[in-house]
Amino acid sequence: MLGAFRSFIGITLLVVIKGLFVEAIFSDEAYHIDWQLSNVGPYQCVLPASATESNDQLLVLSTFNNGTMISWLNKTSGELLERLPLGYRVADAMIEHNDLFLKLEDGSINAMDSMNGFSLDHPPTEFSSSCNPDLSTIRFEDGKIKIMDHDTDLQIFSIDMPQDFKGIKYFRSDKENTLDLMYSTVGGKYTFTSVSDLTSTQTWMRDESLANIRAYTYVSSADPNLAQMFTELSQEGSMNVLEAYQFRVKQTLNRLKNYLLEKKFSVGAIVKEFLEDEDEATLHQKDVSFGLLKYLIVATEEGKIAVLDVRDGRQLWNYESGLKDILKIEALRSDTEVVIFTKSGPSLTFDITRIETEPYLLTNTNMAPVHSVEKISENGAFLFKRPGGGRFLLENPLNPITQDLYLLDHNSKELNAFIYQNEAITETWKTKVDEQEEIVAFSSRGEEHVANLGIVLGNRTVLYKYLYPHLAAYATKNEENVLTIRIIDTVSGELLHTSFHEDEVDFNFPINLVFGEHWCVYTYFSTKPVPEQKIAVIELYESLVANERVSEPLTEVNALGNIQRPQFIQKAYLYPEVIKNIGLTKTKLGITTKSIILELENGQVTILPKFILSARRVEESQLSVDDKKEFMVMPYLSAIPINDQAVLTHNRVLLTGPDSHLLSIPTDLESTTLVCTLGHDLFCTRVFPSSQFDKLSPSFEKGKLMATVIGLLLICFFLRPLVDTKKLKLKWLVKD
Ligand SMILES: *[C@@H]1O[C@H](CO)[C@@H](O)[C@H](O)[C@H]1NC(C)=O
Ligand SMILES: *[C@@H]1O[C@H](CO)[C@@H](O)[C@H](O)[C@H]1NC(C)=O
Ligand SMILES: *[C@@H]1O[C@H](CO)[C@@H](O)[C@H](O)[C@H]1NC(C)=O
Prior knowledge:
14% of the residues lie in helices and 40% in strands.
């Protein structure tokens, strides 16, 4: 117990010390620990990027975010060069020299330079579409595309097509017997082939099927070593202290013996392995035991289910479910099964015990149509809402829910609370917002580890956090453009706090809200006094007087009779970019400093440590000498700048679309969390909110450490005879 406590203090100290030097990412890790899948989406029209001879690029028009997007592809390699979302819909396009003419849905025409997207102001003499390839010399027969001679109608060339061939997207031939062809498949793949002198010279394929993720979940890779350790620990549990100690020593010695046997007792081999760079297998094993290897299971709007390795985005397998209204995908039974729910009713369950290989379809059931699904317990219970408003609960028959569950649901007009008791759902309370009001954001306090009960101030007193778990916050808008944030007790429905923002909030911009351990952070865009992105925080304390604790340690409070009220402090800051989505970093034990993940409208993802976004920051002049001794205390400055080192996306630009998901996945290393954003594009990276305090950096100098140890051993080796002689001489009273 004492040992655990010491190591806990140790880790906390390390976090604190390391937190002082925020280095977001080692430079040798940028672009190695993150990946991006840049999607174009379903191709609407494919054109040559220029009508000139030397053209080696293709232009693709696709749909993104209700508008059209133009993408430039390298014709030789298929590599995506640039993307330009237009924000309006294009019905047709025409290319002439280096001019691209876009015909809008209302018939008007926009002109731009086809190589760089700059606007031009001269209309075409006459619009003729370049989007419909001339297919008069092409036939699709017997699973092949046959290219015929224009004059003789004899076959010149044929290309085998895959089973799920859908259509030809691009075809262009010239006199010198060269032709370019692009075709699509039902599965969302686009293949480009260039044929010259009757041989296919180059082929590439782009997979656009993972664009627009609708639902996701993740599973961890099972670690056999960990399983063995758990068995040993549980065996120890049934022994007395002495036996357990002997058992532990014996197991460790066994492990050492096996290791030495494996190395054939060769010291050289062991030293070599220690100094060598790690090979692929060791790195993989490390990722497994540190919990860095997770599998993302995603479902797209087209019904494709795919499993991705979160470290590099590699696709392990995919399954075309054909379900276009997937609501939810969840892992069940200790990550051995995954279940998929849809809006219209069909539901699939897969066995994913061996995740690296194709899954096995366990059940395919048809449920009643639902409006929404929510996982409500770790046992694998789900709450469904019917389109009409009724609710029902589906629980795992092997692991039923035994205690009462408090549930809170909301729509844009009201909050409804329920209790699940004796297998029935009963409504407990209901709050309607005002007639002109509408709920625009909602967040309940997640259940997670909290490492510290309070905040240690500079003069060694403590401010106790309000850690009552049943809290939620919601934001409403009204017709006067006022944003209201309310914090409520989810069990009793009591309103604990209300705050208003009357600075002409613009509700066309996103409103985001997250609830962390004892605070809630929200973002909004207001137009007064000047248009600006704001980020605000409300913190909850047991008391604002230092060292005053209201809750009793070790006493459990009945949530229904909770009379302890929190006290609040709040602050708002300005942020230089429009914030699209926010999330929180999650780590295994909650010791690492919490950070807010911000997805910006400009396509970047960045993190902001919570201590910067503190409601307790005051102006420099009001800080006493003692106050300045507090950990990470900063004077209040109204603007929070973007720290370049904290930009997780580096130079990448993400196009995540309107319904992207921002998530943080804890790993088995307390310092490390995986952050992903899934939408039109997919992006994942590793984040170390307090730097990597529990892992040696890759550039750690093993050689020097080894040399020091050997040096010390040698010194002992030579000193020992000297000491022995000295002792002997002393006994015989011999003088030197
Ligand atoms: C996109 O268009 C659809 C239908 O036209 C509309 O319902 C939806 O709100 C639009 N989405 C956005 C983000 O503008
Ligand atoms: C296209 O790819 C080829 C082969 O990878 C490369 O040689 C060429 O420079 C690329 N062109 C452009 C415009 O990037
Ligand atoms: C310690 O500092 C806090 C915050 O500045 C202050 O409220 C409190 O009174 C101080 N306590 C003592 C004992 O000085």
